[in-house]
Design goal:
This protein is of the alpha+beta class and about 200 residues long. It is built from nine helices and five strands. Helix 7 packs across helix 9 and helix 8 packs across helix 9.
Length: about 200
């Protein structure tokens, strides 16, 4: 229905962003909301999700991310929240590679993905992603972002933790990696990426 929405980012929260277009605010769930900056103009590739109990918009920085999201939704056992958690890792090429190499041990590290779902991902998607998304996304998530100095480190880290909880990670899992995150001074989206790297080890 909607291919993309282009407008001003008016709100950034742990679970979604709001983009204003001609006086209408669109609530869009994204893999890492804190990778967006308030008041910047963005073009978001959207997926309109409709079920009996939910109507929602999911948004992505690139068309390739959107394609992978839709492919993941077709796997039995993976819903929108699970697909977002997989994309939030910031390394979709690793996900594609794990599927192609039948690496179940990597796939089960994502929240909500057990052995059965990992096996289903491999059965449903192996050999089909390369045609839809060539070259394992070589340029995805490689943008260098200027790191600003923040006085309130804890505020950024707290936002990142809320985002991780909304992706389905347990407090126990997050507590394990928090001491390593507290040693860093980063932006919220960088905390999220770092945390996901640690969680997926």
């Amino acid at each position: 229905m909607y291919d993309y929405i282009k407008g001003i980012v008016e709100f950034v929260g742990p679970e979604y962003i709001v983009i204003e277009v001609n006086g209408i605010g669109y609530q869009i769930s994204t893999p890492n909301p804190f990778s967006f900056t308030k008041q910047e103009e963005k073009q978001i590739y959207t997926y309109h999700y409709v079920r009996e109990d939910i109507i929602a918009l999911y948004g992505f920085s690139t068309r390739e991310e959107k394609i992978l999201f839709t492919k993941l939704l077709n796997v039995s056992g993976i819903g929108p929240k699970g697909a977002l958690a997989i994309l939030a890792s910031g390394n979709p090429e690793q996900v594609v590679q794990a599927i192609e190499e039948e690496d179940e041990s990597f796939l089960v590290k994502f929240p909500g993905v057990g052995k059965k779902t990992a096996r289903q991902m491999i059965l449903d998607l192996k050999g089909k992603l390369q045609q839809a998304i060539p070259d394992y996304f070589p340029n995805l998530f490689n943008e260098e972002k200027q790191v600003e100095q923040y006085q309130s480190v804890h505020h950024e880290l707290d936002e990142a933790i809320l985002a991780l909880i909304s992706l389905g990670y347990s407090e126990k899992e997050i507590k394990k990696i928090t001491p390593q995150l507290q040693l860093e001074k980063m932006q919220t989206d960088q905390y999220i990426k770092k945390a996901l790297q640690l969680l997926l080890r």
